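Structure (tokenized):
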């Protein structure tokens, strides 16, 4: 049986608590953990736990602006790959970049 690839999708939501606001989707080859955070700092703090869980890649939602993505990449420090969905102005955040909010 091939090794299971573990990934995460991190999104921002008001008042989110990543210790409670998460879920998993598991297929035979890929397990994806979806986690809500309330700001960039929580996302950065989450990286250590994700790495400990064996997660190899994290994709950030469009609510993370350029600065937010940079912050998470810095926190990851090469321990996992970081990608991002792109919205310059996110429709769920009143068409504002997360950089202006967080």
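Design, position by position:
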């Amino acid at each position: 049986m091939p090794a299971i690839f573990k990934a995460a999708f991190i999104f921002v939501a008001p008042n989110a608590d990543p210790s409670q606001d998460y879920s998993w989707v598991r297929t035979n080859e890929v397990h994806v953990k979806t986690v809500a955070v309330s700001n960039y700092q929580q996302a950065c703090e989450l990286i250590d736990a994700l790495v400990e869980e064996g997660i190899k890649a994290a994709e950030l939602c469009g609510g993370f602006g350029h600065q937010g993505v940079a912050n998470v990449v810095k926190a990851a420090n090469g321990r996992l790959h970081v990608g991002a969905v792109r919205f310059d102005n996110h429709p769920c955040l009143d068409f504002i970049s997360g950089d202006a909010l967080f």
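Reviewer-requested clarification: The beta strands are 5-12, 22-26, 30-37, 57-60, 81-84. Residues 40-52 form the longest helix (13 residues).
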